[in-house]
Task: structure prediction
Amino acid sequence: MLPDLFSFERRRVELGPGAAILGGFACDQAEALLEQIAYLSSIAPFRHMQTPGGRRMSVAMLNAGPLGWVSDASGYRYTTTDPQTGRTWPTIPPIFMELASRAAQALGFGQFAPDACLINRYAPGTRLSLHQDRDEQDHQAPIVSVSLGLPATFLWGGLQRQNRTTRYRLAHGDVAVWGGPSRLMFHGISELKDGVHPLTGALRYNLTFRKVR
Ligand code: MD3
Ligand code: FE
Result:
């Protein structure tokens, strides 16, 4: 059998200008990425943040990098320290940085140096309602996301909350890049369905890499 050198190209789904899903782009590194997630969670544990309205988010989160995204009664923001431990967030592992930069390059973005990596953990029943990512100062840089474990249905909307949404499947190893006009689109994740993945059990992880400042 010849190696399939073009599988990434064939499995590339264009979502709009500057945005695409690269099917299976992270498959080869999945085990190493999961090992790093386990290590990071020993330093900054996964937690369910509170929405500004006082509701517990069903997604469990942890941060790595100079800046970490937090939500509580006083709103959403990026902090340099973990409010739960008072310590700086753990460093983004080099294999994370290397993957994020390769994915941004695949979409034609220049050097991508994210300063925030948010790790979302989904159990069956967990969802992320439609939102925009607009707490970052740099809207020029793309956002890179990496899906691991159980598959999810991704909701892709428009620039206004009420715009109709298109559904895409995000499966283990898929990497998506969101830049240009797509950077401020509304998006979300439908309630995660029950299932078992050989590497994560009944969980889905998503890494998002952002340039905040
Ligand atoms: C489109 N995470 O953390 S990843 C988030 O699977 C977030 O955990 C989801 O939305 C998850 O904010 C979706 C795909 C994604 C991430 C960021 C985006 C799509 C995006 C930013 C702008 C547009
Ligand atoms: Fe988002």
In short: The chain has a mean pLDDT of 95. The chain has three helices and 13 strands.
